[in-house]
Amino acid sequence: MANEKILIIDDDDDLVLAMRLPLEAAGYKVARAANGEEGLKKVKEVKPDLIILDVMMDSTTAGFQVSLALRSPDPTSEYKAYSKIPILMLTAIHSTTPLRFGPDQEYLPVDTFIEKPIEPAKLLDQVRKHLKS
């Protein structure tokens, strides 16, 4: 049974519930933030082992801004202690727009992109892969 903490930063209540249920059934402790600002505060409170981050929330780039803040190379960053937390970025942008992008250490520092909607088994596979559990 997993004891790791997962923070879901997403404004879609239904999607959060669809991820929370299989994650909690697998033994993960799940916390949620509904936007980027709340997500950055929750990172400090929860100290998650993994973050599931939506791209578009209160703005179309909210997820990008959160990932850049968390992975800032600035040694004085208030998020330096959290810079190694794996980030799984959720997006429907590839299916709804012609935009294409992927993880990039400098411009989009996340570990994996996951297309929405995600099947519970695939979500758990990605979580286990990044947590090595």
Helices and strands in order, then pairings?
Layout: E1 5-9, H1 13-25, E2 29-33, H2 36-46, E3 50-54, H3 62-70, E4 87-91, H4 93-96, E5 112-115, H5 120-131
Parallel strand pairs: 1-2, 1-3, 3-4, 4-5
Helix pairs in contact: 1-5, 2-3
The biggest beta sheet reads: 5 strands, parallel
- Roughly what fraction of the amino acids lie in strands? 15-25%
The overall number of domains is 1
Relative helix content:
25-40%
Question: What gyration radius follows from the Cα positions, in whole Å?
Answer: 14 Å
**Strand runs, count:** 5
Name the strands of the widest sheet in spatial order.
2-1-3-4-5
* CATH homology superfamily: Response regulator
CATH topology: Rossmann fold
State the gist of this model.
With 133 residues, the protein is of the alpha/beta class.
Your description of this structure?
This protein has helices at residues 13-25, 36-46, 62-70, 93-96, 120-131, and strands spanning 5-9, 29-33, 50-54, 87-91, 112-115. The protein is of the alpha/beta class and 133 residues long. It has one domain (5-131): Response regulator (Rossmann fold). A five-stranded parallel sheet has the order 2-1-3-4-5, sandwiched between helices. α4 (93-96) links the parallel β4 (87-91) and β5. α1 packs across α5 and α2 runs parallel beside α3. The radius of gyration is 14 Å and the shape is globular.
Notable traits:
133 residues, Rossmann fold, globular, alpha/beta, 5 helices, 5 strands
